[in-house]
Amino acid sequence: MVSGTGPSGGPAQSASTGAGGGSPSEKGGAAPSASASVSTPASESTVARRLNGLDLQADDAPSSQPAASKKKKRGARAVGPDKNGRGLRQFSMRVCEKVESKGRTTYNEVADELVAEFSDPNINIHSPDPDNPSAQQFDEKNIRRRVYDALNVLMAMEIISKDKKEIQWRGLPKTSMSDIDELKTEIVGLKGRIDKKSAYLQDLQDQYVSLQNLVQRNEQLYGSGDAPSGGVALPFILVQTRPHATVEVEISEDMQLVHFDFNRMIPLY
């Protein structure tokens, strides 16, 4: 316990000892990034970096048909970008361009423009299969799914916002110099904490090794019959203070209570 003032006028320390922790899911694995066949503005480089690794197959647009029936109609699908090399990352950049240029728009407006754009034979790498009349219809639905997923990705990144059916451009995230300086300061602080914890861990390891050596030595002494006659019985408390500290000690008559008065903080072991 802590009490009183010490003889030197400073704060006194007293110690007594007694005996006794929204967006739809994306099916399929990650696919390699698609090569863009449409020129992109300067802002796309930032979006591309932030959307790196998001080139996934977009199969989760809302649909009233069960998944099993869709598989029966369309058959097996290849995982990754479609036949024209269009991936979610490219669609996200194109959607980003569309919303940025319009300011306010809707999903249908963006999807219709992209369907018309990618259906242009001058843009498409492969023309529709003449032996498969439903190929063009499937490609349009695939584009709309990817636009839907791209909008969800951009909303999650807070680049765009959605109010009911209206989609609004918010802007690309910006990093200021103050943010960078703040992050650098945080890194320095975290490194300092790591260094302190590492030093503390090393101290604990040293204590453990010392105690293990002490136990081994005592076992050898008692095993050889050369055990010391004296010693301190366990349990005990070790009180440490500086050589010139003022210490007052009071011991009860039955030797069961010891009262210490110190003029400064002391460690107990």
TrEMBL record:
Location of the E2F/DP family winged-helix DNA-binding domain:
83-171
- What SUPFAM superfamilies would the database entry show? E2F-DP heterodimerization region (SSF144074), Winged helix' DNA-binding domain (SSF46785)
Q: InterPro entries, per this entry?
A: E2F-DP_heterodim, E2F_WHTH_DNA-bd_dom, TF_DP_C_sf, Transc_factor_DP_C, Transcrpt_fac_DP, WH-like_DNA-bd_sf, WH_DNA-bd_sf
Q: What is its main location?
A: cytoplasm
Keywords from the named record: Cell cycle, Coiled coil, Cytoplasm, DNA-binding, Nucleus, Transcription, Transcription regulation
Q: Where in the cell is it found?
A: Cytoplasm; Nucleus
Specify where the region named Disordered lies, as residue ranges.
1-90
Presence of keyword Coiled coil: yes
What molecular function does GO assign, one term?
A: DNA binding
* Gene Ontology cellular-component annotations: cytoplasm; DRM complex
Q: Where is the Transcription factor DP C-terminal domain?
A: 178-267
Q: Which PANTHER family match?
A: DP TF, TRANSCRIPTION FACTOR DP
Q: What is this protein called?
A: Transcription factor-like protein DPB
